[in-house]
Amino acid sequence: MSEEREAYVPGPRKNHPKYKKFFDSLASGKKPSFVAAQLRAETGKPAEFLDFPNEPAVPQNMGPQAQQALPRKLDPRYKMYFDLLTGGQVRSFVEQKLRQEQGKAAKFLDEPDLPADK
């Protein structure tokens, strides 16, 4: 699956023009499952994207070479999985989620400091 690059917009994702309406919907009391389904349909982002409103919406454009050098634990594609582990989530759950959503083996989580694309 090829993702097109979004322009970097400074600030948290809750203020990003593309995603603000989803966070506003949550704040107005809409069901999280409904908002998550809308988010996925319109943007392709997983529901967990809404769990981190203060994270950047997209990484600052550092060029392809610099992005490849990001460690797995900081790469925006995988950061959520390492955050779940750090937050105390059961490892087998995180491994299954990583396998289903990213197609990565459980061993991927054993080396968080390796470059994300290795």
From TrEMBL:
It comes from the Eukaryota. This is Uncharacterized protein. The lineage of its organism: Eukaryota, Metamonada, Diplomonadida, Hexamitidae, Hexamitinae.
